[in-house]
Structures are given as structure tokens and as C-alpha cells.
Write a structure and sequence with these properties.
This protein is an alpha/beta fold. It is built from 9 helices and 15 strands. The strands form 4 sheets. The chain has a 6-stranded mixed beta sheet.
């Protein structure tokens, strides 16, 4: 039995939440995942995971062994990176995570430009709207939108985005343009459930006062693209992030409303682990991506968004370090 391979499978099962999901992540058959877990438990003489029809639960031995596995696997990765010249040369596989729409619109072209400059690097771009754990999921660099929690991660600021309310010109001609938050209740809305609740939109003023405004949702969707498409068809007002709707505003498909009531902007950062040496592939990507993303986000401001007001300060503590 290859113990390092078995440790990798065991950690993947825990991270993915099931044997089948681990198989998909590792790109191996379910039967292989199940066999390697069984072999590892047999070798150790103890059960690591309690399996049921609904969920997996780590045993006490499993929790202790998982922590040891993560440390061992990280040390092995570190040794392999050093031996292969990862700290001296720009080469290897770079794993980058980003939100779906931002990744498609901005990270894909930036990554493409980076790959043209560095032919010995391959990029795995993971697009998803959940915040990944960089250490546990072996992500080198992530694009994060929003105020960052206390963390040992390092953050490189690249700009700001903000929540905007918009509607099609046809809808505004038919139902009128809202002039204040009090008028929202009388309008039809398209809600993106990744940003707001279906019946309430929360606004935060520059002096940090929160206000919850009831809205009449005619349609709730699960992606920003769908919300923008429905609003462009005249269904109602929608509220999304400024970068998501920049093209529709520029093309005149949608019109921005209630700009004076928009909450303060939220920061956009590239984040990466702050412990140990930074591989050259990561440093090279950050050097390329930070400059290009700053230009792109500034371009969105100049193309029609109001200039962002200063972002509110984050809480004191061990905030992500800036670079």
C-alpha cells in the first residue's frame, strides 16, 4: 500500500464529504477510493470514518490521523516544490480560485495573458461562489470579493466593487424610476439569492447604518447572469455587483437607479498563504494579475460607475497582511 497515496485519498474524502465526491475530485473510480480507505483502515487497525447512508463522520482516531496527514502531505509538497525548483523558477501547476462571473469576465483573460508569458506553468482555474480554504484545498491564489476576516493569509488589493440596483429602460418607462428606497416596495424585482434575501434588500449607508427594505420579488434566480438577463427583458429591478452588470449598463440594456443610496464599496483582493516561502509561479501570477485587474476594475468605474467612496475599515486584529 502506498501510504502517501492513501493519506491523500483519506483527506480528499473528508474535504469532499463523500467517497463519490472524493473520486470525482481525484478523478479515480469510486471503487478505488473505497478500496484505498479500507486498506488504510486495515493497515492502521482502526476505523477512521463512520459511514451511513446520509453522511460521513470522523472517529476520534480519524480526527487525530487527519491532522497528522495534512501536516505530512504539506511537508511532502513543500519538499517536492523545493526539489523541483518551484522557488527558483516559474514553472509547475498553479491553482487559482475565483467567483464564477468575475472569473469568467476577468480572471480568464488575465490567466491567459500570464500563460503566454510563462510557458512552463499550467493553470487550474476553479470557479465557484463559495470561499475556498486555500491550505486544505491546495489553492495557490484566490480572488476574494468582500471584507476579509482575520487571517494569516496575505492580501494584495486590486480594487473595489459595489452593489447596484438597475432595470431596463422599457421597465422604467412602463413603471417609473424609483427615486428613494421607500418606493422600492411598489416595484417588481428580480432577486439573485446569492446576494440578498428574496423579500428584503439590505442597504448600508456610508456611516454604517443598516436599513432593510422590503421588495416584491417576481422571480428569484440562483445566478447573477440570470438576474441580469431577466431584468434586461423588462421583468423588474435587480440588484447585483457592479462588475457583473457593467456590460449591460455600457450597452444600454440596463439603467442604474438609486445610485445615491448604494452602500459603500467592498474590496477585491488577491489572497495567498502567508506562511513559508512563496513559490515563484505564485509571485509571477500575482505580479501580472494585480496590475491587470486594477486596470480592469478602474475601467469599470470610468465606464459608468460612480467613483467609489473610501471603504470602511476592517475590524482590528490579525487582518490579512497587505502586499
Amino acid at each position: 500500500m502506498d501510504r502517501l497515496d492513501a493519506m491523500t485519498v483519506f483527506a480528499a474524502i473528508v474535504d469532499a464529504g463523500s467517497l463519490s465526491a472524493a473520486g470525482r475530485r481525484l478523478e479515480v473510480p469510486l471503487a478505488t477510493v473505497s478500496r484505498k480507505l479500507a486498506d488504510l483502515e486495515s493497515y492502521l487497525g482502526t476505523r477512521l470514518i463512520t459511514r451511513s447512508t446520509r453522511r460521513l463522520e470522523l472517529t476520534e482516531a480519524g480526527r487525530d490521523y487527519l491532522e497528522a496527514c495534512r501536516q505530512i502531505l504539506e511537508q511532502v509538497d513543500e519538499a517536492e516544490r523545493a526539489a523541483s525548483g518551484a522557488y527558483a523558477n516559474v514553472r509547475g501547476r498553479l491553482v487559482v480560485a475565483a467567483p464564477v462571473v468575475f472569473g469568467r469576465l476577468h480572471v480568464v483573460p488575465v490567466a491567459t495573458a500570464f500563460l503566454e508569458l510563462h510557458p512552463e506553468v499550467d493553470v487550474q482555474l476553479r470557479l465557484g461562489d463559495r470561499n475556498v480554504n486555500l491550505i486544505e484545498e491546495h489553492v495557490d491564489v484566490a480572488l476574494r470579493i468582500g471584507n476579509l476576516p482575520d487571517s494569516s493569509l496575505v492580501a494584495t488589493p486590486v480594487g473595489f466593487v459595489r452593489r447596484v440596483v438597475c432595470a431596463s429602460p422599457g421597465y422604467l418607462d412602463r413603471f417609473g424610476t424609483p427615486r428613494s428606497l421607500n418606493e422600492l416596495a411598489s416595484h417588481r424585482c428580480v432577486t439573485f439569492d446569492g446576494l440578498d434575501a428574496a423579500s428584503i434588500w439590505t442597504f448600508v449607508s456610508a456611516d454604517d447604518v443598516r436599513r432593510q427594505v422590503p421588495v416584491h420579488t417576481r422571480m428569484t434566480v440562483s445566478t447573477a447572469d440570470a438576474a441580469i438577463a431577466a431584468a434586461a427583458l423588462g421583468l423588474g429591478l435587480t440588484r447585483v455587483l457592479s462588475y457583473q452588470v457593467a456590460d449591460a449598463l455600457r450597452d444600454g440594456q440596463l439603467v442604474r437607479v438609486l445610485a445615491a443610496d448604494e452602500p459603500p464599496p467592498v474590496p477585491v483582493n488577491l489572497i495567498y498563504p502567508g506562511q513559508g516561502r512563496l513559490p515563484m509561479k505564485s509571485r509571477a501570477f500575482i505580479d501580472v494579475a494585480a496590475g491587470q485587474l486594477r486596470e480592469r476594475l478602474q475601467g469599470l468605474v470610468e465606464a459608468g460607475s460612480a467613483p467609489p467612496s473610501p471603504a470602511r475599515r476592517q475590524p482590528r486584529g490579525d487582518r490579512p497582511k497587505r502586499s
